[in-house]
Amino acid sequence: MADYKAPLRDMRFVLNEVFEAEKLWASLAGTKETVDVETAEAILEEAGKIASTLLDPINRSGDEEGCHFDDGVVTTPKGFPEAYRTFIEGGWCGLGGNPELGGMGMPKMIGAQVEEMVQSANISFGLYPMLTAGAALAINAHATDELKEKYLPNMYSGVWAGAMDLTEPHSGTDLGIIKTKAVPNDDGSYTVTGTKIFITGGDHDLSDNVIHLVLAKLPDAPAGPRGISLFLVPKILVNEDGSLADRNNVSVGSIEHKMGIKASATCVMNFDGAQGWLVGELNKGLACMFTMMNYERLAVGIQGLSASERSYQNAVEYANDRIQGRAATGPANPDKAADPIIVHPDVRRMLLTIKAYNEGGRAFSSYVARWLDIAKFSDNTEEKAHADAMVALLTPVVKAFLTDRGLESCVMGQQVFGGHGFIREWGQEQLVRDVRIAQIYEGTNGIQALDLMGRKVVANNGKFYELFAKEVTEFVEANSANAALTEFTAPLAKAIERLSDVTEHVIKASAQSPEEIGAASVDYLDLFGFTAFTYMWAKMAKVALENVEGDTEGFYATKIKTARFFVNRLLPKSLALAEAIKTGSADMMALSAEEF
Amino acid sequence: MADYKAPLRDMRFVLNEVFEAEKLWASLAGTKETVDVETAEAILEEAGKIASTLLDPINRSGDEEGCHFDDGVVTTPKGFPEAYRTFIEGGWCGLGGNPELGGMGMPKMIGAQVEEMVQSANISFGLYPMLTAGAALAINAHATDELKEKYLPNMYSGVWAGAMDLTEPHSGTDLGIIKTKAVPNDDGSYTVTGTKIFITGGDHDLSDNVIHLVLAKLPDAPAGPRGISLFLVPKILVNEDGSLADRNNVSVGSIEHKMGIKASATCVMNFDGAQGWLVGELNKGLACMFTMMNYERLAVGIQGLSASERSYQNAVEYANDRIQGRAATGPANPDKAADPIIVHPDVRRMLLTIKAYNEGGRAFSSYVARWLDIAKFSDNTEEKAHADAMVALLTPVVKAFLTDRGLESCVMGQQVFGGHGFIREWGQEQLVRDVRIAQIYEGTNGIQALDLMGRKVVANNGKFYELFAKEVTEFVEANSANAALTEFTAPLAKAIERLSDVTEHVIKASAQSPEEIGAASVDYLDLFGFTAFTYMWAKMAKVALENVEGDTEGFYATKIKTARFFVNRLLPKSLALAEAIKTGSADMMALSAEEF
């Protein structure tokens, strides 16, 4: 397997050239004093080093060894605790955290790229700080000052970790039916009892404490999702002075044996009358989770990109090294027995597909991160509202589309390896096993698609969608005089028209039958993703065209070629998706349950 | 995980109703005396039992335990040797074998369905007899009578197993550069020396002997593929009287640790001056392999179908059991906390996609098997030549298209399971890991696509393709008066027109640039597959429409609904494929190797 090389050149291109981050940061109340390009680039460079030298070397060994569960105690694979100590010493757990409580306050545009590198090197490892950051985000947004001051500094430093406890054996997607109970105590705390499953980082030996955010219901809570509250439940109780007290009644029932991310501990957590504290308002627990979820879902989307980038680097190295067969146009390597397989068009098709997805995905994840940053750091109400709408619309797309492309790219990269791709030793098959979970957790991709189609598009009659369509259309119009860009803006104009047409179609159809939403949703999200990527590629091509002349490095010329491959070869998938969506729900609802 | 239930009803439908096997068998010289529907159905029923009761129960345990390699000796997981003994006692290894030497002489149309059931229950197990059958086929077709009489009876009985030794560390797809040497001995045998990798069933504890078919080169052989010969090299030498003699110089270097099919021993084989015997003519080894490969490639395609069928059965059971959320049109299950997830359109979309692929794939694999049977059992030269052409054309399609759909269906079934799909205990993730290899071995799917596009279509200027197109067009025309069938024949007519158009386009384009073949190939094979499946679905719908009235079982009504889902929802993919193919090779050849 190739050593991981952080794609810093492309990251700078996206950050500085495509999205002009410096201009953005200077314009936002919350970043203008604190963030600049030099800081950003220094952070990214350092993160690239951490990824390559600290996390990459324990990726495969972590997979082979997996986590252990012995006598109630979870231990991570060899090398993980040491790497974690170095990682937290670098302050990485607090990168996006509240600066008043020890966080670094960096925007998500930087955080997203850091996450990409960390997860490219080691998805299992990356999950521990990802969960901590997510839990800290929810605490920072919704908990009392007392809780924030007591818990956040140690979470930002990474000395304590975080976990999100939502799922129960009978309740995953449908959180309205959870059974975990919280009973109020006289001192304002609650006694939490119940079992949670699939808890990532639910326990481990990396940190001194694990701070659980647990969804539970009060005995008299309303039925369904409106009766869910959120509680902070530490594994070890914390004294007034911040020192660790007694163990809380929180224990690990077992850890799961999984297809992949084997070095990430996935726990069954038992809360047997554990002491917890309310976060946010009673019965508003789901809303509190959703603040955090936009960030988490972007981070999971980025896992897809991360694995895909890794797959690309591996497959390119193999395609250059492996000699087999001859180029169709005659030997490229006449003194050797065969040519490197990168001469073959079909191998190039696979590599270019992955490359186009990765660079499109890197731009798209930064674009979504940019909207998250505007929503968080702007002091302009209108601008914030616009950003909130874009975040709401695009979050399910970035989560599902990037992770679906992630699996596709890892499988395709494995295909480049031929038989060696199936052998553990080569490391490529681990990527396939690891990335697969990203399509499932944090809301399956089917749920993301329902969220997009139902709540984010149909429910507001396309209001959020119109913001996106307007932005794209304005981009096309603003560049109508740019003849060199037409090969990208013309397909983009068609793509957004197609998506708008389908959007209108589904909104209308679903007024007649609510089943139209679920019948369209997954294909619609895919269609949205291909359209959004086309927008990203047109934006990137614009910058590349402006800079290609005199570029001795060749970066911009390659960018233009990749853009061309995307719009010509990959965008046609949108034709099929639009056609399929329009056939509606009738065929799939025609069968009774027994006919399956 | 659901217990495996053999889809016997659908198999009978395909065999008897869609392809009227009895009529076919009665018409062929080689089957008219020996095969009838009663025998076929008895065999299929028994195979279904073997699959469910013997092979299914050791599938997951086999995956968990894997094969062992200790001190040069390979052992299979617990229960495998016992199950193998029962399996061979049933005579299953000789099902398609030469009846003069102990085989049962059954047609591949039966064998294909048996293979489907065996592999649905346990892909790892199924590989052992599959490899034996393949090796026996090559020996029967090309070896001397002496070799045939010495080896085949024990291979048909399964007392000895077979293995195919092609790949070397530096030589997989490109067999022309193999290094294994064969030096003639005075007694007519050869001394074989070299190392082979990825040898499925290269050694194990199931049988008393392993008969290797090894590709090697004589010292003075021509360079490249025209200098390859095929040798029979037994693990243990065999005396004149058929008893076992000394161990040959054949040893196992190691076994591979793989992503899946862990209970199938994948060996590094060392031949250190092993004694072997020529099979077929000198330097014609590849041609001898190809006789067998059409059968093996169909069998591997069927592995995709097998896993997909299993995925379907599991996912349907889960979708009926798991309650989560409410139907869009109101509670279906008002006295419970939630509805079974099979009420949700998106879950139905996934299940119906898998179902449509499976039933299409079952028909298509039987269709290809039918051509193999005509080629083998007919005594009419013209009919044989036609069948040979169809086999040549369709083999790469059935291998690649069914295995690609296999992965897609296993991933989709896993998605139905949500988080449980990622947990080993549930068994669904094993399917994904097991089926993945089928896209890689026996010639990667990329190689299948090149074989189809280059050798089977472009090289003969579309001659074989025309046979297929003519058959489909004739079917459409013959049914033009069937108004009820129009919803299937109209899309079929369009699909075959589209495929013919693309075929012509690529033939022309490749005359200008040979790279057009590789640029089109994978998408072309996919387009071919969707078209062939549409043909299968139209044929099945025709029979179903003829029988739907008065069918109390509901089989035919469901068949028609599934056909409708296929043509409406899945066939649109062909639009995108045709469009993508036409963009040609320029974009993918534009990058230098360094630009990747």
Automatic annotation (TrEMBL), chains A, B:
Domain of life of the organism encoding this protein: Bacteria
Reactions catalysed: 3-(methylsulfanyl)propanoyl-CoA + oxidized [electron-transfer flavoprotein] + H(+) = 3-(methylsulfanyl)acryloyl-CoA + reduced [electron-transfer flavoprotein]
Location of the Acyl-CoA dehydrogenase/oxidase N-terminal domain: 38-158
Domain (Acetyl-CoA dehydrogenase-like C-terminal) ranges: 468-591
Keyword Flavoprotein assigned: yes
Cofactor names: FAD
Domain Acyl-CoA oxidase/dehydrogenase middle: 163-272
UniProt enzyme class: oxidoreductase
GO molecular function: flavin adenine dinucleotide binding; oxidoreductase activity, acting on the CH-CH group of donors
Pfam families documented for this protein: Acyl-CoA_dh_1, Acyl-CoA_dh_C, Acyl-CoA_dh_M, Acyl-CoA_dh_N
SUPFAM superfamilies assigned: Acyl-CoA dehydrogenase C-terminal domain-like (SSF47203), Acyl-CoA dehydrogenase NM domain-like (SSF56645)
Keywords: FAD, Flavoprotein, Oxidoreductase
Enzyme Commission (EC) number: 1.3.99.41
Domain Acyl-CoA dehydrogenase/oxidase C-terminal, chain residue ranges per copy: 283-452
Record has Flavoprotein as a keyword: yes
Job description of the protein: Involved in the assimilation of dimethylsulphoniopropionate (DMSP), an important compound in the fixation of carbon in marine phytoplankton, by mediating the conversion of 3-(methylthio)propanoyl-CoA (MMPA-CoA) to 3-(methylthio)acryloyl-CoA (MTA-CoA).
PANTHER family: ACYL-COA DEHYDROGENASE (PTHR42803), BROAD-SPECIFICITY LINEAR ACYL-COA DEHYDROGENASE FADE5 (PTHR42803:SF1)
Similarity comment: Belongs to the acyl-CoA dehydrogenase family.
Record-given protein name: 3-methylmercaptopropionyl-CoA dehydrogenase
Organism per entry: Oleiphilus messinensis
